[in-house]
Amino acid sequence: MAERADKTRDVIVIGAGHNGLVNAAYLARAGLDVLVLEKNDHIGGAAVSSVMYEGWTYSNCSYVCSLLRPEIMRDLELPRHGLQVIPYEGGATMMRNGDHFATYYDHDVFREEMRRHSRKDAEAYDHYSTAVMKQCRWIKPLLLRTPPDPTSFRPRDLQELLYLGKHFASLGERDMGELIRFFTLSIADFLDEYFESDVVKAHFAGSGIIGTALGPYSPGTAYVLLHHYMGDIDGSVGAWGFARGGMGSVSSAIAASLLSYKGEIRVNSEVAQVLVENGKATGVVLANGDIIRARKVVSNLDVKRTFTKITDPKDLPGDFLERVTKFKIRGSSGKLNISLDGMPTFNNVPAGHSSLRGDLHFTDSMERMERAYDDWKAGDWSRDPYVDMLLPTQIDPTMAPPGKHYMSVFVQYAPPTLSGGRDWDGPARQQFADTVINQIAACSPNFKDLINHYEVRTPWDIENEVGLTEGNIFQGELTMDQLIFNRPVPGYAQYKAPIANMYMCGSSTHPGGGVMGAPGANAAREILRDLRIHGMDPRQEIEL
Amino acid sequence: MNAPVTKPIHVGLKPTPFIERLRPLNKFESLEYWKGYWSPADYGNAEREYFAIRNTSSVFDLSPMTKYRITGPDTVAFLQRMVTRDVSKIKVGRVGYTVWCNDEGKVIDDGTLFRLGENHFRLCCQENQLFWLSHSAEGFDVNIYDETDEVTGLSLQGPTSCSVLKALGCEGIETLKPFEMRAFPFAGGEVVVSRTGFTGDLGYELWIDPSLALPLWDGLQEAGKPFSGVEPIGSHALDMVRIEAGFIAAQVDFVPADQAIRADRARSPFELNLGWLVAMDKGHFTGRRALLEEQKNGSKYCLVAVDIDGKYPADGSIIYHHKETEVGHITSGIWSPTAKRNIGLASLLVPFGKTMLDDLWVEIYVMRELKWEKLMVKCTVVKAPFFEPARRRATPPLTY
Predict the structure, then answer these.
(1) For tag attachment on chain B, is the N or C end more exposed, with fewer CB atoms within 10 Å?
(2) Partner residue opposite A350 with nearest CB, options B8, B36, B259
(3) Do residue B155 and residue B264 come from a single domain?
(4) CB pairs under 8 A, 24+ apart, for B348-352?
(5) Do B3 and A172 touch (CB under 8 A)?
(6) Most B CBs within 10 Å: which of A125, A126, A193, A450, as the mutation test of the B interface?
(7) B14, B143, B262: which to substitute to probe chain A, counting the most A Cβ within 10 Å?
(8) CB contact under 8 A, A355 and B8
C-alpha cells in the first residue's frame, strides 16, 4: 500500500533522539499535532538505557548528565515525568608511578591535593576556574537563542547581532581579547598558562578532547573544554551527575512529557526519504513505502545524514550540499559497558575513597594524551587510550543488583574506519576491548575476575545503531569554524533547511552536542515563529 | 593486595598548632571556615569576646593566615614593582600595610609587609597569592616561599596587652611603636612581636615556631591572670572590631580583582579609600598607568563609612538616593557596642559619597516575630574609624 490512511500531521520529527523529543514536546505543548518517527525499536538515540545482561542496566552511549538545560527541564516538567539527576563528586587520575591525582568537593581539600603535585598549581587553580567561569558566563545566555545571520539585514538579525555585540562588550576590554583567544587555543596551551604539573594538566585536559577528533595540542580544543563546563546541576556550574536509572531516563521523561501533550511516537518506523513537492517538504516516505504527510518536517539526524541519506540531492542547492558533505563529523571515540560482580579495587587509591565515586582516568601526562591521538591519525585505536570511566552504581542503586556494579568506560581515540582494510565488525572490536580492559586491569588487580559481561561500542557500532555519522557523539565537531552562526554550515544556522517547511533540530545545529536539548528547543521556537504561534520567545537574560 | 603508594590526603579541617588548647574551649563547636583550617567563629559568647578586645586582652589564632617569605637580592625592587606603596620607606624591623593591583589598577588583595631584613620580607594576606607573586617575580632575582604552616601567628589585642607581654617577659615592650617589630627570647627560642593588628586598638601580633605555640599559649594565659585574663576570641568578635576600625576585608568589602568574574566588580585603591597607599612618585609599579588615568578622570566608585539610623544592622542592604535611585550598598554593617551607633562601610557610585552626601537612605529588611518588615532609614556619610582610643598609637601605651 502506497499511502496509509494517515491524516496530515502538523509536524513530523524524524528521529527520537533527545533533541527530536524535546523539539516534538515543545511543539505539542503549543497545541500542534506532532508525530515522531524512530527507526529503532526504542527511543532515545544516544541517550538510552538498556538491559543486556540480566539485572544490569547500561547507559549504552552517553553516560553522565550536566548540560541538559534547566529551562527545558522546567518547561517540559521533566522531573514530574520521572527525571532525577544526582550530582556526583570526586574523580581521579591514576598515575603510572602508583600515585594519583584526586579531585575533592571541598575547595581547600582539593587545593591541598594539588599542593602535593605542585604548590604553584594549587594556587593557580582559582585563577583557572575564574577564567573558565568568565567564558561560561558569556556563552550560556547564547545557548537558548537562535544565532543571527551576520550577512542579513532583517530587523531580527540586526537585533540579535546587536545583542551579541553588547553581550560581547559587557566582558570588558581585557576579556574580549581573552574570549577570542579562548575559542582558538588548544587545551594544552590554555592549561600551560596556569599549571606546571603534568598530571594536573592531563586531568583537566580530558574535557578538551572528549568526543573530538583532535589532540590536546590541536587549536580549538580549549572551547571543547568549555562545552563540558557550561552545564550546571542545581546552580553548581560545571558539575556533572547521573540520571537515575541511566541516560535512558532523560529520553523517557521527555517522551512522557511529549505524550502528556498528546504527541505521538512510532518506533520501528525508519524514514527513507523526505517527501519534497514543488520545492516544499510535504511529508516523509518510510522504509516500508508508507507515506505520511505533514505541514512541517523536522530532522533530528545529523546534518550529513539528513541531507545525504534521506533527502534527494536534486532538491538541494549545490553549494549547501557541498558544504554539508565537507561538514566535520569525525568519529573519535568508543565505549565499553561492563557488568561487574563487585566493586573493583585499585592500586592507586584505597577502597572506599571518595574519588572513586567520580570520573576515573589513567592518562597522567599530556604526552600520553597526544600520543593516543597519534594512533587515531594512523587509523588505529589508541594503544594507550584516554578513558573516562565511572561506576554509577556507587550512587545509583537502580542499575545493578545490590553489591554489584555497572562500569561505564568511554574510550578515546577510536577512528571511524581502521587502516589496513580492517573492519570494525570483525576481530578488531574484540582487540579494541582487550586494549581497554588491560589498561584498567593494570591498575585494578581484581578487575578482570569481576567481569560478568560487557558491551563494546566502536564508532562503527555507534553509526550503525544510533545513526550518528562516523560515530561522532556531538553530531559534528565543536570547532570555531562550525560554531554559532557557522553551525552546521554558514547561512543555515537558524534551524531551517534550504527546502521550505523543513527544519533541523539535532546537535549538528547551534549550540551543539551533549545531552543539552537546546538545539531541539531552539528549532521548536523557530517553527512556532514561522507558524505565528506565540509562547516561546527568546528568554530574558536574568541571573537567577 | 598492594597498598597504594601514596596515602590520600586528609579530608576534613586542618589542625593548627593551638588546636589542643582551643578545641576544649570551643564548647559549642562553633567554627568559621577559614581556608580549610580549624578556626573558631566564637566560643559561645561573641559579645563577651568583643569586650575582651576593647576592655582587657584577647587572643586569636592567626595560623591560617597566608604568609609568604620573600628573599633574594632583588626583593626590594620586586616589591616596589608589585605593590603600590613605597617599600623602600619600610625600614628593617618595621611593618607596612599595602595593596597590590593588576595592570588595570584594580586591587588584587591587601596585606602587611614585615621587613625582617634588608632583603627579607614576609607578606601576610588573606588570599593565596603564589600565582600572582610568581608571575610578578619574572625577571627578578627573588625567592618566594609559602611559609604559612611554618610560622605560627597569634594576635594579642586589647588595652592590657602590653602589660601581659611585659609579664610574659618581653622586656621593654612598652617602647615598641605602632608598626614596629622586635624579637624577644622565649622558652629557649624566640617570639617576634609586632605592634600590629586588625582591631584598631592597642595590640600585638606574635610570630613563633610551631613547636613553641603551646608554651606561648600557656605563658600568655598565666601572664594575663592579674590583668582580668586573656580571652580567646573567634572571628565574629574580630569582625565587629575591624568594622569599628574602618578596616576592609577581601571577599567582603571588595572582590579580589583576579577573582572577579563580572567586569564591573573589581575596585581600584582609590575606590576603596586607600589612595594613601599609592606612591605615584616612586616610579613604575604594576597598575600605575591605569591609576594615573583614574586620578585624572575620576573614580567610578567610592568606599565610605556610614552611620545608619536605628538599631538594625544594615549588612548587605541597598542604598538609595532620595529613596528612589540605587546608588550602592552596605558591604559590612554592625551595631557598634562601643560607639553605640549603627555603623557600616558602604560602596557607592560616585558622585554619591563624594559630593552628593545628602538624602541617602538604606533599605533594611528586619524580621519581627517571623514577619519581615522593610525599613527605609537615613544614612549619613562619616569619617572612620568609629572608635579610636588614644592607647592605639601612644608609646609607651597608657597603662590600660
Answers:
(1) N
(2) B8
(3) no
(4) B348/B301, B348/B302, B348/B303, B348/B304, B348/B319, B349/B300, B349/B301, B350/B298, B350/B299, B350/B300, B350/B301, B350/B302, B352/B302, B352/B319, B352/B321, B352/B327, B352/B328
(5) no
(6) A126
(7) B262
(8) yes
Do B31 and B157 lie in one domain? The reply is yes
Give me the pLDDT at residue B358, please. 95
Residue B200 counted as domain residue: yes
Domain-located, residue B212: yes
Looking at residue A232, its pLDDT comes to 83
**Is there a cis peptide before residue A385, judged by omega within 30 degrees of 0?**
no
Identify the pLDDT of residue A48. Answer: 97
In A, which residues are within 8 Å of B104 by CB distance? 174
pLDDT, greater one: A1 or B345: B345
The C-alpha of B35 sits at a distance from chain A's nearest C-alpha, in angstroms, of: 6
Mean pLDDT, residues B282-308: 97
Instruction: Provide the residue range defining the domain that includes B167.
Output: 19-63+150-233
Q: What is the pLDDT of residues B199-239, one digit of tens each?
A: 999 999 999 999 999 999 999 999 999 999 999 999 999 99
pLDDT along chain A (544 residues), means of 10: 72 98 97 97 97 97 93 95 94 96 94 94 93 90 90 89 89 87 94 97 97 96 92 85 96 98 98 96 97 98 98 95 96 98 97 96 98 98 98 97 98 97 96 98 97 98 96 95 94 96 98 95 96 75 49
Is the confidence at residue B357, as pLDDT, over 80? Answer: yes
**Mean per-residue pLDDT for B326-331?**
98
Would residue B83 count as lying in a domain? no
Whether B90 is in a domain gets the answer no
Model confidence at B174: pLDDT above 60: yes
Q: Where are the domains of chain A?
A: 9-48+62-85+245-327+469-530
Cell numbers for A333: 571515540
CATH superfamily of A9-48+62-85+245-327+469-530: FAD/NAD(P)-binding domain (3.50.50.60)
Q: How many C-beta neighbours within 10 Å does residue B147 have?
A: 12
* Residue A443 identity (one-letter amino acid): C
Tell if the CB–CB gap between A126 and B128 is shorter than 8 Å.
yes
For residues B226 and B350, membership in a common domain is answered with no
Asked if pLDDT for residue B161 goes beyond 90, the answer is yes
Among B2, B36, B146, select the one facing A119 at the smallest CB separation: B146
Cβ of A350 and B104 within 8 Å?
Answer: no
Q: With contacts defined as CB-CB under 8 Å, which chain B residues touch A347?
A: 2, 4-5
How many structural domains is chain B composed of? 2
Task: State the pairing for strand pair B203-208/B152-157.
Answer: antiparallel
Which helix (H) or strand (E) is B351 found in, with range?
none
> Pick from A113, A120, A133: which is nearest to B130 by CB?
A120
Query: What pLDDT does residue A125 have?
Result: 94
- Contact check, Cβ <8 Å, A349/B8: yes
Q: What is the CATH number of the domain that holds B219?
A: 3.30.1360.120
B129 with A123: Cβ contact below 8 A: yes
Check: complex ipTM more than 0.90: no
Residue A184 and residue A198 in contact, taking contact as beta carbons nearer than 8 Å: no
SS3 of B168-198: HCCCCHHHCCCCEEEEEEECCEEEEEECCCC
Tell me whether residues B1 and A445 touch, CB distance under 8 A.
yes
Helix, coil or strand: residue A102: strand
> Which of A233-237, B205-209, B343-347, B387-391 is least confident?
A233-237
* Min Cα–Cα distance to chain B from A406, Å: 22
Contact B263 A109 (CB under 8 A): no
Nearest to B128 among A102, A123, A348 (CB): A123
Q: Report yes or no: A347 at the B interface, CB cutoff 8 Å.
A: yes
Q: At A426, list the grid cell.
A: 570483525
Q: Look-up: residue for cell 586494549?
A: A435
Please indicate, yes or no, whether residues B196 and B263 belong to a single structural domain of this protein. Answer: no
Q: How many Å lie between the alpha carbon of A140 and the closest alpha carbon of chain B? A: 14
In this prediction, residue A543 carries a pLDDT of 52
Chain B interface includes A191 (CB < 8 A) = no
Region of residue B130 (phi > 0: left; psi between -120 and 50: alpha; otherwise: beta): alpha
